[in-house]
Amino acid sequence: MTYPELRQKIEQQLAQLPPEQLSLVSDFLDSLQSKSTMSQRPLRRLAPIKRGTKAGELLKFAGTWQGNDLEDCLRLVKETRSKAQF
């Protein structure tokens, strides 16, 4: 499908959507645009974490947890993590 054909198809589909679904499409497009701008930013270099570092010192690298699905996330991590090779 050519670019003009794809645009025409999308425009026709958008014209038929009810307002609540159109809002979802808009949110999705916003998320795509924010991802593309994030991928263009250069990565920040952090100092390596040294052995013997205390947990309190590591907190500056940790985010905060918001939500009630911690158990689900831990289960997913355990199911999908790979074995360490030394």
Structure characterization notes:
The protein is mostly helical and 86 residues long. The protein has a domain at 3-40. Helix content is 59%, strand content 0%. The termini are far apart. The mean pLDDT is 80.
Q: Biggest sheet: strands, sense, closure?
A: none
Total number of helices: 4
Specify the structural class.
mainly alpha
The average pLDDT value, as a whole number, equals 80
Question: Which shape, going by the Cα principal axes?
Answer: elongated
Element-level helix/strand string: HHHH
Number of DSSP E strands: 0
Summarize the amount of helix as a percent range: 55-70%
Quaternary: single chain
Rounded to an integer in angstroms, the radius of gyration calculated over CA atoms is 22 Å
Percentage of residues in DSSP E strands: under 5%
Query: What gap, in angstroms, lies between the N and C termini?
Result: 49 Å
Given as residue ranges, the uncertain stretches (5+ residues, pLDDT < 50) are none
Supply the key terms:
0% strand; 59% helix; mainly alpha
Describe the structure concisely for a colleague.
The protein has 86 residues and is mostly helical.
Set down the secondary structure blueprint.
Elements: H1 3-16, H2 19-40, H3 55-58, H4 70-80
